[in-house]
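thread: overnight batch results

M.L. [08:02]
morning all. the overnight job finished for the chain we discussed friday. pasting input first so we're all looking at the same thing
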Amino acid sequence: AIVGEAVGGWPGDPGNPGPIDVHQMTTTDGETYTLDGVALTTGPVKFRQDNAWNNNWGGESFPTGPGATDATKDIPAIAGAYNVTFTMSTKAYDFKVITYSIVGDGVGGWPDFVGPDPNQLSTEDGVNYMINGLVCTDGGAKFRLNNAWAGGDWGGTTFPAGTGKASDNIPVVAGTYNLKMNRVTGDYDFGASLSTK
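M.L. [08:03]
and the structure it wrote out:
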């Protein structure tokens, strides 16, 4: 499991009351453990085995680290949403950031290139994402996970706010907006337009 202040608390804290740690990792081979979509705040984390302190591993670097064998070290996590991998034999770890962007003809165009989408959303807690000063024209838009269609995308049927649906495009109205999106619920809100015609 992953435990620590950055992921809800140390064992016994309200966010991780036990006896089973909240953020359990899974494995198919007993070697590579994974946990997808974990939201971190900025703070320390560790890996621990069997919901006990007998075997636990930290590190000094983030988002990746070499063999984490020093139980006295905490990994210095940075706020965001991550897919996490931990390799049992080497104790190496990797926190791959989960990114969200907004694409479509209403927000600058649909992706037809390699590289990150231009309208990247930022997050402080790994759940709520935002982009300020987003310039929109009349047209459709969707959220995209990790700058790829394979990772997941969704839109919506209402504007300026609604709950995301996989097959729809949000009917964006021209203006400049501060957009907020919750990756867990799919709720989005463009807020009031910041500009006048």
